[in-house]
Amino acid sequence: MAQPRKQSRVRGAELVGRGWLNTGGRRLDLESLRGKVAILDFWTFCCINCLHVLDELRPLEEKYGDALVIIGVHSPKFEHERDPKALAAAVERYGVEHPVLDDPDLETWDAYAARAWPTLVVLDPEGYAVSTMAGEGHAEALDAIIGELVATHTARGTLDPEGSPYVAAPPAETTLRFPGKAIELPGGDVLVSDSARHRLVRLASDLETVVSVIGTGERGRADGAEAQFNEPQGLALLPAEVAAEVGYDLVVADTVNHLLRGVRLADGAVTTVAGTGKQWRMDNGTSAALEADLSSPWDLAWFEGRLVVAMAGIHQLWYFDPRARTAGVYAGTTVESLKDGTLDQVWMAQPSGLAAAGDRLWLVDSETSALRYVEDGAMRTAVGQGLFDFGHVDGPAADALMQHPLGLAVLPDGRIAVADTYNGALRAYDPETATVATLAAGLAEPSDVIVLGGKVFVVESAAHRLTAPDLGEAAVSGQHHRVTRKRTKVAPGALRLEVLFEPAAGQKLDYTFGSPIQVTVSADPPQLLAEGAGKGEELGRDLVLADGIGKGVLQVVAQAATCDAEAEHPACHLTRQDWGVPIEIAEDGVSTLRLVLRD
């Protein structure tokens, strides 16, 4: 097994960017962090893995108090994420309670040689980089490193455990706060997932009057009449006969709790119906809904006699059968990319919105900026070109582009309305003509679409409201954006790929379910790789780059299963990361590409 490189004692690079959030206007530098253990969290707010890391860091912030400073370094992927107002909204939306550096030009990203979202860099109280980690699932390793640094620098007298650079923004007063999804209830009321306030809000048909609230509004997990949610998103009503049988009327995707929750509308009682509350790390071999680990369920739709769940955290669709109380994989392999085919072979990237229409299940695949559908046991793409292409372009579907869409609905005339979130637009795809048009623009991060009495409404998330935009039909020929990051020069022909991994202290590789290592390699364009694409169980692999293609992106998905080495009842862990590595073929390029999964 390839071993990680030993890091020399290197001072951290300065923190350079456009500005700071959560500091009360103060600009921070390495000198201002002296005396603290610091974690630089390189993130982008579109990335579900980055959102997982935010939740992994919360307990560490609480445990170590002011001895630990987390600095979010926001290095954007999508064009919309470069907007400072959009970043400020995301910091509030996701409850980020530490300073954030706005790094729109990826200056600090490049200075720390980050290759993937998320990347974590630990700095000691003297400003030296002591560890770098890519991906999620590092909570235990971080805890051990921080604990050791706190002990060492307390003994040296170089730790300052008092005072924090974090300054909370003043709370806002709006009826809703970053609502996510909405559904119409029997009788005409509308239920909205009030995501940033961790509750569900029932609105009257005027979409302003609050009829009732489900949930205390505090981030948490509790069933019953005083229920708690954690950033809930999707909502789905059950058919009346199913609801009568199971005792609840609708299901909520309780996203950050990694749960599905059932709600009885008569009294607002909430019960957990699927999930353990643990984030999915690997298949545990059960189909019992309450024993299955989920990962950031984002939306739901009734299709083929059961609920289909957009499992954004692992790039899959799952099913949930309320009557049989079972749950499991419906489509996808967990590889983050765009590939059509039979449901067990397709690749997705953060599916975030679902809508059923007859024999078709429509979905928006946010990270590939794609509109896709399931029919006859296969998935096909209607609009979208891949992980790295996005924009605002109408016309023939093969050329049309969107930017990180999160919601959709089927219109009465059969067209598919898409909440094109990062374009701030409502788009329409016509299956008859295979064309895309813009129906409305200038919206504030629309996250869902709902049709009420034949009229189209949008959940305008960053404006904290539901609104009925003035609809027109226009052909927008905007820019085609492609994610561009610093390219790694690689030599033509043979290329050795090495994923460097070492289990965290106190852990060992876990062979319970077979090989603990899985590495999947693909390329954009696919023709870039002459040999070496596909899935394997080794950390190292020999690739061959095709002749005649000068540049592209190598997509690598690596995961390693570990367990506690000495514990009587060992806990299991899964470390996972997706890389999109831009490469350029050059005679003076490297012949070995090393990616660090944990260091």
Name the structural class: mainly beta
Largest sheet: 7 strands, mixed
Helix content range: under 10%
The first-to-last residue Cα distance is 14 Å
Range of strand content: 35-45%
The coarse silhouette is globular
Count the beta strands.
Answer: 44
Radius of gyration: 24 Å
Low-confidence stretches: 1-7
What is the helix tally? 5
* Strand neighbour order, sheet with most strands: 1-7-6-3-4-5-2
Average pLDDT level: 92
Domain Thioredoxin: 1-151
Keywords: Repeat
Protein name: NHL domain-containing thioredoxin family protein
Pfam families: NHL, Thioredoxin_8
What's the layout of helices and strands?
Blueprint (H helix, E strand, L loop, with lengths): L9 E2 L7 E3 L15 E7 L4 H17 L3 E7 L9 H10 L6 E3 L4 H5 L7 E5 L4 E7 L4 H18 L25 E3 L5 E5 L4 E5 L6 E5 L17 E6 L2 H7 L3 E5 L4 E6 L4 E6 L22 E7 L2 E6 L4 E6 L4 E6 L9 E2 L8 E7 L2 E6 L4 E6 L2 E6 L5 E5 L1 E2 L10 E4 L5 E5 L4 E6 L4 E6 L5 E7 L2 E6 L4 E3 L9 E6 L5 E3 L3 E7 L6 E3 L7 E8 L4 E3 L2 E3 L3 E6 L5 E14 L7 E14 L6 E5 L3
Describe this structure in words.
The chain is mainly β and 599 residues long. It has five helices and 44 strands. It has a seven-stranded mixed beta sheet, with helices on one face. β6 (119-123) and β7 (128-134) form a beta hairpin. It is globular, with a radius of gyration of 24 Å. It comes from Glycomyces niveus.
In short:
Residues 1-151 form the Thioredoxin domain. NHL repeats lie at residues 403-432. It contains five helices and 44 strands.
Supply the key terms.
599 residues, globular, mainly beta, NHL domain-containing thioredoxin family protein, NHL2_NHL_rpt_dom, Thioredoxin-like_fold, 6-blade_b-propeller_TolB-like, repeat
